[in-house]
């Protein structure tokens, strides 16, 4: 558990925490299903074999997976089966035959889909028994399979100068909605078929979610350390590091980074024995998710407040630095006591890419939503928290 966690942390340092769906993320979902294969055996005879074989296949081929668990937004007050004008708005089963199942409809929001080898489909949203069984499926398919359409948002990497947008250029993950246009999924790739309760158990009872999101906390800790370092470099460049209020702001950023790092360490060093495996404590993970979602907007706000207009009083492109006439003016206008004008320009552009660019804005949305909307994480924490022990403390004082 600890070695695994340290490996995830080291991998995250390669992208300084900016790749949410690095290849060790969704593969952890499969590992977490395998540690609890009994959950699948409990449900069916054939489906666990499909999962076992798929796990071996992905491991041996070293494939990069993404996943899409969320039903596309439509009318959230209605279950998928109540979208009567289009019952295949959400991906559902059209028919089953000897070869497999034919599925139609959409799932969101597969990060990295244009880059990945395969996609895992599951169910995150609640389904209504009696009307939603057709949506209760889980399977995996190659992303170039016949009938799979990837509709990706605009790429933030496309057309930008790598030196102007160092993060966007390297780490954009191209979130996508995936449409299944009557895709035949062979039985050997079907893990759950029309079973609502099993879709819930797949992520909650097995260790799928907990292993995946432990990886996410490793990545997040690295990203927060990066952002703290970036903010301090910017403050030094602007000569404001010695102001007490600036030091307080920087200390808060360090505090957020250490907070998440501490929570991550507690996940890997204080696990539970679960089905014969060391697995991070789920309640602790849910607390982590809630705090992680709350912190990120504060981190960005803190850095923006430190940045002032410095992240915008910049030449439009790296190309300007190659124009002698413009470079002369840049040298006259981009002063710092600790950095050259060109260094200053490049640093401020990096800050903007991290906190203000379209890429940065997408990351804000990612950190706040990738594990589900905040009410979801809070509800899970409410359900799992040890209220009994907590209330015993209250009883102790009441008895005095
Ligand atoms: C950048 C990014 C990348 C993502 N990558 C992936 C990925 O790779 N794979 C994947 O499967 N998913 C991914 N997600 C999807 C993510 O899991 C969902 O965005 C998340 O589960 C929230 O669902 P939603 O977007 O449909 O929002 P909704 O569920 O529609 O919620 C939006 C808001 O509506 C309100 N609301 C909706 N329903 C309720 C309710 N029942 N009670 C109270 N309030 C409610 C809340 O204010 C909520 O914050 C990604 C999301 C983002 C933003």
From TrEMBL:
Residues 199-397 form the HpaB/PvcC/4-BUDH C-terminal domain. Keywords: FAD, Flavoprotein, Isomerase, Monooxygenase, Oxidoreductase. Its EC number is 5.3.3.3. The keyword Oxidoreductase applies. GO terms for molecular function: monooxygenase activity; oxidoreductase activity, acting on the CH-CH group of donors; vinylacetyl-CoA delta-isomerase activity. InterPro entries: Acyl-CoA_Oxase/DH_mid-dom_sf, AcylCo_DH-like_C, AcylCoA_DH/oxidase_NM_dom_sf, HpaB/PvcC/4-BUDH, HpaB/PvcC/4-BUDH_C, HpaB/PvcC/4-BUDH_N. The keyword Lyase does not apply. Residues 2-192 form the HpaB/PvcC/4-BUDH N-terminal domain. Signal peptide: none annotated. This is Putative 4-hydroxyphenylacetate 3-monooxygenase,oxygenase component (4-HPA 3-monooxygenase large component) (4-HPA 3-hydroxylase).
């Amino acid at each position: 558990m600890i070695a695994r966690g340290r490996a995830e942390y080291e991998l995250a340092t390669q992208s300084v925490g900016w790749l949410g769906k690095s290849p060790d993320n969704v593969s952890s979902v499969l590992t977490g299903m395998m540690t609890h294969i009994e959950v699948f055996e409990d449900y069916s005879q054939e489906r666990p074999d499909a999962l076992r074989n798929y796990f071996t296949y992905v491991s041996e081929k070293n494939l990069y997976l993404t996943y899409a668990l969320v039903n596309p937004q439509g009318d959230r007050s209605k279950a998928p089966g109540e979208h009567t004008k289009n019952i295949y708005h959400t991906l559902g089963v059209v028919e089953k035959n000897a070869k497999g199942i034919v599925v139609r409809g959409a799932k969101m929001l597969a990060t990295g889909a244009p880059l990945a080898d395969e996609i895992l489909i599951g169910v995150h949203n609640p389904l209504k028994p009696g009307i939603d069984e057709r949506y209760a499926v889980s399977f995996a398919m190659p992303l170039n399979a016949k009938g799979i359409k990837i509709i990706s948002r605009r790429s933030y990497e496309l057309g930008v100068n790598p030196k102007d947008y160092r993060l966007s250029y390297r780490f954009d993950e191209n979130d996508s909605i995936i449409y299944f246009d009557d895709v035949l999924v062979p039985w050997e790739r079907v893990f759950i078929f029309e079973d609502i309760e099993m879709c819930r158990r797949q992520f909650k009872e097995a260790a799928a979610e907990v292993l995946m999101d432990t990886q996410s906390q490793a990545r997040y800790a690295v990203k927060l350390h990066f952002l703290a370092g970036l903010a301090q470099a910017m403050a030094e460049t602007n000569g404001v590091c010695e102001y007490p209020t600036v030091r307080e702001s920087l200390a808060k950023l360090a505090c957020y980074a250490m907070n998440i790092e501490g929570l991550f360490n507690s996940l890997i060093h204080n696990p539970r024995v679960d089905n014969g495996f060391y697995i991070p404590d789920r309640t602790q993970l849910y607390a982590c998710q809630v705090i992680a979602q709350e912190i990120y907007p504060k981190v960005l706000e803190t850095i923006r407040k430190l940045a002032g207009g410095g992240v915008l009083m910049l030449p439009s492109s790296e190309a300007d630095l190659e124009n002698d006439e413009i470079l002369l003016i840049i040298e006259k206008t981009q002063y710092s006591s600790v950095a050259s004008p060109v260094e200053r320009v490049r640093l401020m552009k990096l800050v903007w890419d991290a906190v203000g660019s379209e890429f940065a804005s997408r990351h804000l949305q990612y950190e706040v939503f990738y594990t589900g909307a905040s009410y979801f994480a809070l509800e899970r924490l409410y359900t799992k928290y040890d209220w009994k022990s907590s209330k015993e403390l209250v009883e102790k004082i009441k008895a005095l």
